[in-house]
Amino acid sequence: MSDKPxxxxxxxxxxxxxxxxxxxxxxxxxxxxxxxxxxxxxxIDKMKRQGKTYAAIAKQxxxxxxxxxxGKPWDGRNVRRVMTxxxxxxxLYGSAPVGRPLGGKPPE
Length: 108
Description:
By secondary structure, this protein is mainly alpha-helical.
């Protein structure tokens, strides 16, 4: 078992919590890309490449009315976690997408 905490996150129903930008289907094993969250990741990535800090990005997302998956406002830590979290092991889920596509465009 890994010591990375992200691999042990669970939802209220006991299924693993998929990383931001992805969702589990009802079977709890098949993972899919969440195009709305991927669009937010693309926006975050664009702002980061423009030199904005994570806190500044969070402020802009909140000003646009974009909330996190939990419906709460963004903060710099959440933004950083979305862009740097590699603790989820996609290989445990067979043919799951590998990597984190940006800009809401699922792989072909």
